[in-house]
Every structure is written in structure tokens, then in C-alpha cells.
Amino acid sequence: MVAIDIATSDQLTKETVISNGLLIVVFIYTVYAGLQFSRSRSSIKNLTRAFFLQIPWITSPIISFKIASGIGASFAIIYSTLNYKYRLSLGADYTLSLYSDQPLGIGINLAAVSFLIFIQLYKNPSEN
């Protein structure tokens, strides 16, 4: 489920519209890739790209990026505080921000990595 908050006119900036628009395009692409895969197990190129987009979790004062469509099980190490974060999500979950007060850190979406391994192992045997 994608939840979009309708902001008041003073909160709605060009950057917000662009970042939300880009992330909605990624979610639509993920649905398209899943539908293509459901029609043919040999059609994994788009699904692989969709999962690769969901692997990184990057936080920094310059850019923060994280996206999970469906199931997300993310783990990140935050360098500035020598701490870690984890996040479990079901549904659409995303973060995209530029020039924010986020600490420096990096992580991965373990669910996306697991799904990539799964589709490589169980793709159409005729492609092996």
C-alpha cells in the first residue's frame, strides 16, 4: 500500500513532487516486472532490476535513499553514532531526501537480496 500525504500548499515543494514522482515510477516498474515474471518465469531481467533498486539503504547529510516494495527487512550501520538500525516493513516503504540532517550510514535490504537469490535459483530451467 502506498500512502501519499497531501501536503498543504506551503509544504508542497518542487523537490517533494519530483522525489515522490520518481519513487512512484519505481513502484509502478516493480509491479510491471512482477507481472511479467508471473506470465513467464524466464522473464527475470526486469524483476532483477527492480530488486537491485531495493537493495541499498544509504543515509548521509547529502542524500538518503531506501526503497522497499512488498517486504522489506533492512539493516544499516550508522557511522556517525557507531550504531545500527533495522527496519521491517510490509507494503511500500521509501525514503528519498536531499540535504537533510541524516547521519552517515549504509545498509542493505536483506529481503531484496533473498528474492534475487530465489529468482536466480528457481528461474526457468531452460535458461540454465
Report on this structure.
This protein has 128 residues and is α+β, with helices and mostly antiparallel strands. It contains three helices and four strands; from the N terminus they run H-H-E-E-E-E-H. Strands 1, 2, 3 and 4 form a four-stranded antiparallel beta sheet that branches. Strand 1 and strand 2 form a beta hairpin. Helix 1 runs antiparallel to helix 2.
What is the structure about, briefly put?
The chain is built from 3 helices and 4 strands. By secondary structure, the chain is of the alpha+beta class. The chain has one domain (14-123).
Q: Specify the structural class.
A: alpha+beta
- General shape: flat
Terminus-to-terminus distance: 35 Å
User: What can be said about the biggest beta sheet?
Assistant: 4 strands, antiparallel
N-to-C SSE string, H for helix and E for strand: HHEEEEH
Number of helices: 3
* Number of structurally distinct domains: 1
Strand proportion:
25-35%
- Number of DSSP E strands: 4
Radius of gyration (Å) = 16 Å
Fraction of helical residues: 25-40%
Average pLDDT, rounded to a whole number, is: 82
Low-confidence stretches: 1-9
